[in-house]
Design brief:
- This protein is an alpha+beta fold.
- Helix content is 32%, strand content 20%.
- The protein has a domain of 125 residues: Aspartate Aminotransferase, domain 1 (Alpha-Beta Complex).
- The protein has 7 helices and 6 strands; from the N terminus they run H-H-H-H-E-E-E-E-H-H-E-E-H.
- Helix 4 packs parallel to helix 7.
- The longest helix has 15 residues.
């Protein structure tokens, strides 16, 4: 008579039923189904541009030392080169002038107290020379002889055909280019009669 243990061992475990494969039609439908579109990314917020004004307060005019201290040494030398050129021109005077809170204080140059020549200012930590040229002055500039800095400034000129405003960065070759523009400007400026002195009050 077989023992209970023998009976148990004689029973074999039934194998698991294999999983049914999906019909061929279902497979084809799944393969043909287009992939789900990815969620569109949210556009990044545009960074707000902060315009740096070197000296924005009207009641706080900078001294020459304070203005020069904002400039790298190499740019400071070019600034002094342009200043020296302007100071040598007959009738040209230099002054610090306040152009409003968006521009701040800048150096302005006027001939004979009546004719604007140019200005130099610090804009977004860069020294810019700004000059307005009429058609006669524009024609007097040897543009092909100037550097790419001046060529770019010419392309970006604003204003009107009668008077084009040109902003020249004064680092690198820009200072020499700006001086060439100033020579053309000064040559084209008409010579004006001196201003009439104020009339004396009667009884003096």
């Amino acid at each position: 008579m077989a023992s209970k243990g023998a009976k148990k061992s004689s029973k074999t475990a039934r194998p698991a039923k294999p999983a049914k494969a999906p019909p061929a039609k279902e497979k084809a439908a799944k393969a043909a189904a287009p992939p789900r579109p990815a969620k569109p990314e949210k556009p990044a917020k545009a960074a707000t541009k902060i315009v740096k004004v070197a000296f924005p307060k009207k009641n706080q005019a900078p001294s020459e030392t304070e203005f020069a201290a904002r400039l790298p040494m190499a740019v400071g030398k070019r600034f002094e080169m342009v200043r020296g050129f302007l100071k040598k021109q007959k009738g040209v005077a230099e002054e610090l002038f306040f152009y409003g809170p968006k521009t701040g204080w800048a150096y302005r140059y006027v001939r004979d107290g009546q004719q604007s020549v140019c200005s130099m200012m610090i804009h977004q930590d860069r020294l810019l020379g700004i000059v307005a040229l009429d058609p006669a002055a524009m024609a007097g500039v040897d543009w092909p002889a100037l550097s790419p800095v001046a060529q770019k400034a010419k392309r970006l000129a604003h204003g009107s055909p009668a008077l084009q405003w040109i902003d020249v960065p004064l680092e690198g070759t820009g200072a020499a280019d700006f001086r060439a523009l100033l020579k053309a400007k000064l040559k084209a400026l008409p010579i004006l009669p001196p201003p009439t002195p104020p009339a004396r009050a009667s009884g003096i």
